[in-house]
Amino acid sequence: MTIHTNRRAFLKGTGAGLVVGVMLPQAARAAQKSGASAALATGEAAEGAFAPNAFVRIAPDDTVTVLVKHIEFGQGPYTGLSTLVAEELDADWGQMRATSAPSNPALYANTAFGIQGTGGSTAMPNSYMQMRKAGAAARAMLVSAAADRFGVPATEITVAKGVVSHEGSGQSATFGELAEAAAEVEPPVDPPVKDAKDFALIGTDRPKVDSRAKSTGEAQFTLDVYRDDMLTAMVVRPPKFGATLKSHDAGAALKIPGVVKVAAIPQGIAVYGENTYAALKGRAAVTAEWDESGAETRSSEQMMAEWTEAAHGAGKEVSSTGDTAAALAEAETVHEVVQQFPFLAHTPMEPLDAVIELREGEAEVWMGSQLQTVDHGAIAGTLGLPNDKITLNTMLAGGSFGRRATGDSHFAVEAATVAKERGQGATKLLWTREDDLRGGYYRPLTVHRLRGGLDADGNITAWDHTIATQSIMAGTPFEAMMTDGLDPTAFEGAKVLPYAVPNHRVGWARMESAIPVLWWRSVGHTHTAHAVETFMDELLEKAGRDAVEGRLALMDDETFAREAGVLRRVADMADWSGQKGYGVAVHKSFDSYVAQIAEVEDRDGTPHIARVWCAVDCGVAVNPNVIKAQMEGGIGYGASAVLFDALTLGEGGHVQQENWDTYRMLRIHEMPDVQVSIVESDESPTGVGEPGLPPLSPAVANAWRSLTGRTPRRLPMVPVDQA
Q1: Are 135 and 88 in contact (CB under 8 A)?
Q2: How far is the C-alpha of 512 from the C-alpha of 509, rounded, in Å?
């Protein structure tokens, strides 16, 4: 799939340079107009609102609205970034609101990516100081306006819970009352921010800003968007990855009441209905013939065998310290394992969907876009319109886990293609759960081969690790992040060990398939953490050493102090003594450190996760309740994967799963009791959306081996036909 723009071209097309920092020129205090949106606001300041910068709007009714540049799909940026603004603004939490910022990388770029987008658990880290400065700037302007109104020095003004006061004269005013005057104040260029000791909101719990709207149904998702004369479209896609359409017959479909149109498109066959039911029935009635000459026809088992053979080679060297081959040859004991991981689907609660409305050379889009800049440019290119004729409204989304962040923007392109084929008017493209599971973009099937050497005293002297998997980045705009042909997402979490092993080598065998692959919650860490931490457990067991103390003995106090800190914390939480049925793992991902201990029970030969203790060090804990929720969510999501999940291809390359009855998810009564402890830290915040997942899988596998003596070598632990 061709991407029709890049960041440089996009910025050139908008006629705006990148704005570094939070302040906007006087003439552009209100963000760029983005058209009518189902969200609360689109960046344009409402009449009478105070817009000190691109991120903050203060209305006459005292409400403070934060424009959040990151998509909200449950991971908490609306609450987290609003907390940062409220802290520096000294606002009352009850007056805070949040909405999605417009698609505009000149104003809302993710500083980690250089484009507007969400991913890699970067929302809080890249916005921490930016949003605090935005709040501090607004506060300074309000204080200046109050000083003029009260006729007193600004240094004598105080702000608390949304009220600006002068104690000496007894005068006070609310934010809303000062908004108009504050709008005339010159914005400060680099306002100072609070010292951590003065925090009133950061580090404390409070309700999430979007909980009420989501609970009452007021919150708007793409599924909730209905436009005049809107048609609903669904697409018949090839039954095998890489197949293309030869011919089709739409006769039966067009006879179904409500079916308006059927058309061949590059992605398959689009069926347009007056409603969802008509589109579904019409799609089912279409017959098609497919060219499978370029299709993936191997089964999962065939690919697993090929990947395993490749893992037994050296692969392309990723990193190497010491002489691993010599150390293995000289080792008293050599332990070797092969670990196999299946394709995994994301299965967010809300499958992919989008609404595109075409009107007289312009288009407005509603979708849960995770990479707004990439999707915006892809839609513009597909429709043949300039970027500035596209309005992209980022909607709330019902989960993602990486699924909405596609480098090739395949879904955005499909939605634009369907809309273009329909013509003027609004078209809603829907994927069903079956489309979601059969549509590809999975976590790659992966095989690890590890060899470890022990000397006569049980010391680990060598560690050789080869990973066979597809590249996620290759063929996308993210390929530019690959160095020397190496995709860092394939081996992240394995390249650097938190353990002192003198001879350590990692290699990558790049595999090829027509099956499109994508990052899945915590990306490469999903399998590298399992491989590394289960292998370490086995080596320590062979050396006769405790799983916790053995790890701590291998951690350099200065280099790996934070890994050791969470490991000690979780061991204290679980009262660790090497109990049977307990397993431990520690892993760093996205600059956060997480250690977990799982307690596993044997229920008629099937593992059941009873309890999980989790310690996390993610720097300053801006919203502790959000951090705990993300750890719990990652543990639940990871439990599904380690126990039950596998996306499999049968003979000939057909996907065998189509809904949650065959793609088994953790059920509510199977969720373990989870206890989370946040390590106190004054380091800058790091991500929490993904790091809770990687340690869960190895902790469970280690617990199962402790309990039963059986070592899982292939995930999921429960065979698919028994789940």
Answers
A1: yes
A2: 10
Place 318 in a pLDDT band, splitting at 50, 70 and 90. Answer: very high
> Do residues 115 and 148 share a domain?
yes
Q: What is the pLDDT of residue 721?
A: 80
State whether 413 and 549 are in the same domain: no
Residue type, 14: T
Percent of the chain scored above 90 by pLDDT?
A: 91
State residue 425's pLDDT score: 98
Give pLDDT, residue 556: 85
Q: How far is CA 428 from the centre of its chain?
A: 24
The count of residues in the chain is 723
For residues 417 and 311, state if they share a domain. no
Query: Position 145: which residue type?
Result: A
In this predicted structure, what is the pLDDT of residue 43?
Answer: 46
Residue 119 CA, chain-centre distance (Å), reads 5
Query: Same domain, yes or no, for 339 and 367?
Result: no
Last residue of a domain, one of 192, 216, 240: 216
Which residues are within 8 A (CB) of 211 and not within 5 positions of it... i.e. 6 or more apart?
Answer: none
Give the domain extent around 663: 300-344+441-722
- Taking Cα atoms as reference points, which of 135, 137, 72, 124 lies closest to residue 99? 72
One domain, residues 328 and 396: no
- Mean pLDDT in residue range 659-680: 97
Instruction: Count the domains in the chain.
Output: 3
Mean pLDDT of the chain: 93
Residue 1 domain-assigned (yes or no): no
Give the mean model confidence (pLDDT) for residues 703-718.
96
Which amino acid is located at 154 in the chain? A
Each residue's pLDDT tens digit, 243-257: 999 999 999 999 999
174-216 pLDDT, tens digit per residue, is: 999 999 999 999 999 999 999 999 999 999 999 999 999 999 9
Determine the longest span between alpha carbons in the chain, in angstroms.
Answer: 83
Provide the pLDDT for residue 42.
39
Where does the pLDDT of residue 44 fall: very low under 50, low under 70, confident under 90, or very high at 90 and above? low
299 pLDDT exceeds 90? Answer: yes
Answer yes or no: is pLDDT of 628 > 80: yes
> How much is the pLDDT for 722?
81
Q: Give CA–CA dist 448/338, Å, rounded.
A: 6
Give the residue from 186, 216, 246 where a domain finishes.
216
Per the structure block, which two tokens stand in for 434? Answer: 């079956």
Contact 272, 422 (CB under 8 A): yes
Check whether residue 362 and residue 245 sit in a common domain.
Answer: yes
Q: Report if residue 435 sits inside a domain.
A: no
Q: b/e map of 582-621 (b: 16 or more CB within 10 Å)?
A: bbbbbbbbbbbbbbbbbbbeeeeeebebebbbbbbbbbbb
2 in any annotated domain = no
d(CA 375, CA 409): 6
Which of 497, 512, 419 lies closest to 465, judged by CA? 497
Tens digits of residue pLDDT in 93-113: 999 999 999 999 999 999 988
Q: What does 542-580 look like in DSSP terms, one character per residue? A: HTT--HHHHHHHHS-TTTTHHHHHHHHHHHHHTT-S--T
Which residues have a Cβ under 8 Å from the Cβ of 666 and sit 6 or more positions away? 636, 639, 640, 643, 644
> Does residue 96 sit in the same domain as residue 177?
yes
618: in domain: yes
Q: Which residues contact 404 (CB under 8 A, 6 or more apart)?
A: 71, 73, 348, 352, 368, 369, 370, 371, 397, 411
Do residues 416 and 552 both lie within one domain?
no
Q: How many CB atoms lie within 10 A of CB 451?
A: 19
Give strand ranges (E) for 342-459: 353-359, 362-367, 390-394, 425-430, 446-454
Residues 6+ apart with CB under 8 A from 124: 77, 80, 81, 622, 685, 686, 687, 688
CATH at residue 109: 3.30.365.10
Alpha-carbon distance of 529 to 586, in angstroms, equals 8
Write down the pLDDT at residue 47.
Answer: 62
- For the whole model, what pTM was predicted? 0.93
